[in-house]
Amino acid sequence: MIEMMRYYWRWIKILNIGLVLEGGGMRGAYTAGVLDFFLEKNLSFPYVIGVSAGANNGANFVAGQRGRSRRIYLEHSRHPEYMGLKNLIKEKSYFGMDFLFNVLADKLDPFDYKAFGESPTCFKVVVTERETGEAAYFQHRDFDPEFFVKNVLRASSSLPFISRPVEIKGKYYFDGGIADSIPVRKAIEDGYKYNIIILTRNKSYRKEPAKISFLADLVYRKYPGLIKSLKNRYLNYNKTLDFIAELEEKKQVFVFRPIKQLEVTRTERDRDKLKDLYEQGYMEAAEQYRNLLEWINDIRG
Asked: What is the pTM of this model?
């Protein structure tokens, strides 16, 4: 079995298969399950790109920390500083950013900065520039590992209206999902024709216009580019889903998405639901594993 996995890993290296990770807040527990299965099978990729919760899961994956994402969703999310209205008062963010990217990463469940920084994987994170509303893509090799975690990952998780933007090199950034929710086009642009994509919505899902988009005109009136991106997000998201469907038909992507109906919200607190979703991700990855290897075999020709 070990020799077989080494064989398939050689395929992945030769084919330059990328890994694309959608965000989705607490729905990222599904992605955590899939990635823990990958780590269990010693699968790794030369290129990983993630957004928001997908970026955080991706960082743990690149660092090789199997189980850390699971603990964050199932154990640490119960901490009173993880999320809640008290954080809005304390640090103007619904999610406890200081807790997530400082206390948690440095003390409660230490992140392996060394392994992360030394990883040969090209890991990119999507953020949205406040002034233009356009996507920016930061690579972990271009930053000190600790700075990347505490600032780039934080920026990619900073939702408008309920979080402050994060300053990086003199510019301010919000959640990457505003401008590029599923960055498969960026992966292709970067030279990865074939990609594995992990989504956090069921196949039938399509995004609808945000009910509070009218607030963007008031809150972010100084940033028309950001307002435009916020209002058009649902359109761009649905177009990307259509694009992914086309790529699936061409066998250029292999998609993991929740098969069982989702019952978890972006700000889910129910531990049982989160546990079920994590296990769903793990089990569905295991069930589709042979199909994944066959897909790799097919594109290898």
From this structure: 0.93
